[in-house]
Write a structure and sequence with these properties.
266 residues; Rossmann fold; 9 strands; binds S-adenosylmethionine
Length: 266
Amino acid sequence: MPCLRKYSNVVRNNAMTLTDEYINQNIWRNWTSYIEALPIKDTDIILDLGCGTGHVSKLLSEHVLKVISMDANAKLLDEAKMINNKSNVEYLKQDLRNISESELPVVDGIWTSFVAAYFPDFSSVLKSWLKFLKPDGWIAVVEINDLFAHFPLNVSTYESFKEFYREERNNNHYDYEMGSKLVKFLQDESLSIIVHESKYDKELSFNGPAEEQISKAWENRFNRLTALQEFFGKEKYSDIKLEFLDCLTKETHTCKAKVTFVVAKK
Ligand SMILES: C[S@@+](CC[C@H](N)C(=O)[O-])C[C@H]1O[C@@H](n2cnc3c(N)ncnc32)[C@H](O)[C@@H]1O
């Protein structure tokens, strides 16, 4: 039964769904260390924007009065409702570009992890979100910067990844360098930065050879990134994928990708 599924049981095989992948990824994020840095109070009502399978919503709900969690993906929300079903978490299907003001209270805090990059025009989206934040409220944003900056890679391979980043950003699909821009976006809205850290992440930001499960997770990521596949073309893509996965297994593997965590106050 899905509702009895434990996070650690989901590491499986090639046939993983996106939902399974998102559930797995939570094993490799040290969410407690993020939550400890938040200025949360047990009376807070907060938003989790782009909550996915609701893992962080559940953790946050243990510290606050209420979490209102939103995502556009109905399948992920169904999973969240089954496995992360705390009574003080409300799940809403919602496009984060157009949150209807009439649906929400003004909140004490906003959490959004690995979501900002979906909005290369983050400035306008952020502005719309901040309308829901109380005058002394906080916002916490987690985002990756330079996802494929794992080495040793051929110089030409890394340059191709950078070219792909540019294409995705110009098409307004995704900004692979959003992590490095968060502070500026938040400061441009006159928010005060109270936390700005790069977080170790077992899957995304680590050095040395990857564990088998981590390599598998990266292989799954390559298998589902159709935009990257189209960018390289089918034949070249399988070489790039092999080169990247091989790089992760090396003793000399180093990583410049960063998971950036920023907390700001109004
Ligand atoms: C990488 S997942 C992150 C999930 C979760 N926050 C976490 O940290 O594990 C990104 C989430 O953002 C959601 N998302 C992306 N664009 C969205 C949009 N325009 N409106 C609502 N949700 C969106 C996706 O459905 C997905 O669940």
